[in-house]
Specification:
The relative contact order is 0.12. The chain is about 10% helix and about 55% strand. It contains one helix and 13 strands; from the N terminus they run αβββββββββββββ. Strands 6-7-8-9-10-11-12-13 form an eight-stranded antiparallel β-barrel. A hairpin with a 3-residue loop joins β10 and β11. With about 240 residues, it is mostly beta strands. It is rod-shaped.
Length: about 240
């Protein structure tokens, strides 16, 4: 009888001790989490009733500290210096592209070539980006097209590009690009491209169809304007 009475007294004392702390607090756990709620505690456990009515409990070994003052958390998303560049409508942009094309001749042999380009510049909006680009072009059947023993030429150009439609609510967006410049070992060049962007505002894959008009020294020794039609794939951020 005495043992049972002693057990009841100890239990009541524990409950009284636990209920004495019943006020709002922030519990800092050892795993880095912070739990807010009405806190009661014993020597071995912390009991938390959260604002939504959930009842949680943690062993004291998992608790780092208990604070009755609201912690100062970093203002992520409100600090003007913290910007998500993936959603930024203005700023610098860069791209890498690989193209493959065939010259367009009705009465002559059509020649394939490929080109790798790097471009970059400034983005005023999703509808208008300007910049410069450089590339390396390789002619697979050079002797049937150009009066040169070197199969390489190097385009250098200004570029203007942008979206036809806003990409705010879509991941696939039609785009345009117009390149204007020249190529080392060739001559004047211009290239309009139309295609689609797949991805986010500042991170997207590009697939397009391009026309290239290139002035070069033809294999006959005369200057000639050559047209080519190709496919371009790339990545822009």
């Amino acid at each position: 009888m005495k043992k049972r009475l002693l057990t009841i007294i100890v239990a009541l004392a524990s409950l009284l001790t636990a209920s004495a702390d019943g006020r709002t607090a922030w519990v800092f756990l050892n795993n880095g989490n912070i739990v807010k709620g009405t806190v009661t505690k014993t020597d071995t456990k912390v009991f938390i009733t959260t604002d939504d009515g959930s009842e949680l409990s943690y062993p004291m070994l998992e608790v780092n500290r208990i604070s009755y003052k609201a912690p100062k958390l970093p203002a992520v998303g409100t600090d003007p210096d913290l910007k998500d560049m993936a959603d930024s409508d203005k700023g610098f942009w860069f791209s890498a592209q690989l193209s493959g094309a065939y010259t367009l001749f009705l009465s002559h042999h059509c020649s394939p070539w490929t080109e790798l380009d790097l471009a970059g510049g400034y983005r005023f909006s999703q509808y208008l980006k300007v910049g410069i680009g450089v590339g390396g072009r390789y002619y697979f059947e050079n002797s049937k097209l150009r009066d040169s023993s070197i199969k390489w030429s190097f385009p250098i150009y200004a570029t203007v590009r942008g979206n036809f439609l806003p990409d705010t609510y879509r991941t696939v967006t039609p785009y345009y690009a117009v390149d204007l410049g020249g190529a080392i070992r060739d001559g004047f060049m211009w290239r309009p491209t139309f295609g689609i962007r797949v991805g986010q505002t500042r991170s997207a894959f590009l697939v397009g169809v391009s026309y290239t008009g290139q002035s070069l020294r033809y294999w006959t020794g005369k200057d000639k304007y050559v047209s080519s039609l190709g496919i371009t794939v790339g990545y822009e951020f």
